[in-house]
Amino acid sequence: RCGPLLIARAPMDDDAVNAARIAIPGKMTTANFLLSLAYPDARNKQECLFSEIEGAVLAGEADAGLIIHENRFTYQQKGLLKLMDLGDYWETGTGLPIPLGGIVVRRDLNTEVQQKVNRVLRRSVEYAFAHPDEVMSFVRRHAQAMEDAVMQAHIDLYVTDFTVDLGEKGRRAVQEMFRIAREKHIIPLNNDKIFIN
Q1: Beta strand extents in 14-153 (DSSP E only)
Q2: Contact at 8 Å (CB) between 41 and 13?
Q3: Would residue 195 count as lying in a domain?
Q4: Which residues contact 73 (CB under 8 A, 6 or more apart)?
Q5: I need a labelling partner for 156 at 20 to 30 A (CA). Which of 7, 108, 150, 163 fits?
């Protein structure tokens, strides 16, 4: 499981979460989408940079925080505890992998350009899979300060076979996320064509 985590300084029941000030990494994020599904009555949300959410919770500026990325590997070292793994919530409820992140291409670009972008990105990820030492060197230069083990755990969790090819199951997961988001009026979507091939 690899979804966003809802964390806090102390345990909270559902009523407390619904009333809590929750630091989120952005309104239009998968993390907030999942939080809205799990806690539809939680409305006191404050947007923060993802890297500042733990600090906001520790400082008491937020009662809970929705963390993403490498923070899921380090929050316990700071004395914080997990209230819910929203990836687990999604996967248990849908039976599908959680669609995290995505690369988009403008619809008004011609098909040839869209396909070229797709090919270049695929080759880049395939190269990274084939050259893990180069990847770690690059990540080390550009990551927040973190240990190699945390960086590798982050890569192993988030860069998967779905990164290269969604396949049928991955496509169903994305379609289900969009279906739920439309049904709950979280996003407007006028076009069901979300894949270029």
Answers
A1: 22-24, 45-47, 64-67, 81-85
A2: no
A3: no
A4: 150, 153, 154
A5: 7
**Residues designated catalytic:** 69
Q: In 53-174, where do the E strands start and end?
A: 64-67, 81-85
Q: Which of 24, 21, 3 is nearest to 12 (CA)?
A: 21
One domain, residues 89 and 10: yes
Q: Tokens 């952005």 — which residue? A: 26
pLDDT-based confidence at residue 147 (cuts at 50, 70, 90): confident
For residues 29 and 90, state if they share a domain.
yes
Q: Which of 60, 94, 128 is the last residue of a domain?
A: 94
Distance in angstroms (rounded) separating the CA atoms of residues 69 and 64: 17
Two tokens, residue 163? 């990164």
Neighbours of 139 (CB within 10 A): 16
Asked if 70 and 148 touch (Cβ cutoff 8 Å), the reply is no
pTM for the predicted model, two decimal places: 0.84
Buried b / exposed e along 159-184 (16+ C-beta atoms within 10 A): eeebbbebeeebbbbbebbbebbeee
